Amino acid sequence: MSSSSDDSKKQLQLRKTEIHDPLDDIFGGVSASGAERSKIDMVARQIFGDSDEFADLIAQLVENMVTIGEARARVSTDLKTIGGLLMNSMHLIKNVMVATSGNKTTSLRRAATLGYSFFELALGVKMAAARKYMRCYEAFLDNTEAIRVFNVGELDILAADHVTDEQVAVILAAKQANEHMTREDVRKMLATLQKQEEALADQKADLDNYEALLEDSKTAQRVAEDEANRLQQQLDATAKLIAEKEAQLQRMDSYYTGRQAGLANLEKDLADKDKEIARLNEERNALLNRKPEVQIKEVETTPAGFKSISESLEKRNAELKQLEDQLVERRAELERLEADRKKEAGAIEAANRVQAAMQEALSSFEQFAGKLSLAQVAVQASDGLGQHEPLIETLAAMMRKQLSEIETGLRNL
After folding, report:
1. What is the reported pTM?
2. CA distance 409 to 36
3. What is the mean pLDDT of residues 341-352?
4. Which alpha helices (H) appear in 21-164, and where do they start and end?
5. Which residues form a coiled coil (predicted)?
C-alpha cells in the first residue's frame, strides 16, 4: 500500500510538473496502442526491411521498445531502463550496420539516422528527446536518488559537463527539502553555485598570489637579513681595523714626540758647537793677527798653537756639518711622520663616519624587519587579503629603500 501511494504521489507530481513545464516529460502522453507489439514490429520492418539478416535485430528492438513503452509511465523511476535500452538499441543498430557495411563514418551516420527515425516512428520519441534520455542515463547511472527526485528536464540541466557532483548533491538536497522546486529554480540555483565557486576560485587565486608575495617577501627578508649579518661582521672587522690603526697612530705620536725631544737636543748641541766654533775662530784670528817676536828664528813648521787651532777648527766645522745634516734629516723625518699621522687620522675619521652610517642603516633595517614580521602575521591571519595590498606595497617600497641604503654604505666602504 505504501509503495502504491508513493507511486501515485510521484505520478501526480509528474503531471503537475507537466502542466507548468511541458519539457519536463519529453515523451509526452502514452496511449495504449502506442506500445503495441504489432505496431512496433511493423515499424521496424518498414525501416530495416524484411530481410533475414535483420530478423534478430528487429526481434531485439521490438522487445526493447515494448519494455520502454511500459516504462514510460514511470519516467522518473525508470530512467535507467529507458536511457539504457535506448542506448542499447542504438548500439545494436550500429553493430549491425558496421557488420553489414564496414566500420565507416557513413555506416555510423546511417545507423544513427535509422535509430533515431525508428525511435520517433515506433514510440514518438524525437531525436533530441532520445539523446537527452541517453545522456541522463550516462550521467546519473549510479545516482538513483537523483533519478528518483529530479524529472528528465532537471536531470538534463544537471547532466552538463561543467556540472560537478558536489553541485548536484547540493541541488538534490534543496529539491528534497522543497518538492515544489521547478526546473527554472534548479537552473538558477546551479548558476548561483557556479558563480559562488568561481568567486571562491578567484579568492583562492588571490590567496595563492598573496601567499606567493609573502613567500617572496620572506625570501627577500632572509636575503636582507643574511646581508645585514654579513655587513655586521664587516662592520666588526672594520671597527677592529680602526682600533688597530688608532693604536698605531698612538705609537706614531709617541715616536714623533720622542723625535721632537731629540731634535731639541740636536738644536742645543748645534748651538753649543756654534759657540765653540766662534771661540776657536776668535783664537785663530788672534793668532793670525798676533805680532811676530823680535827674535827671528827660522822654523820648518807652523807654530804648534796655530796648527792645533786649525785642526780643531776643521774638526769642529766637520762636526757642525754633520750636525746640520742630521738636523735636516730629522726635520724631514718629522715632516714625513706628521704627514703619515694626518693621513692615518683622516682614514680613521672616514672609517668612523662609514661605520656610523652603516650602523644607522642596520638599526633602521632591524626596525623594518620587525614591522615586516608583524605585517606578515596580520596578513596571514586576515580573511580579506585585498585590503592589505597597500600595506604590502608600502613594505616592499621600504625594503627597496633599506637595500638601497645598505648598498650605498657598501660602495662607500
Report:
1. 0.35
2. 98
3. 70
4. 37-48, 55-71, 79-101, 105-123, 127-139, 144-149, 152-158
5. 183-354
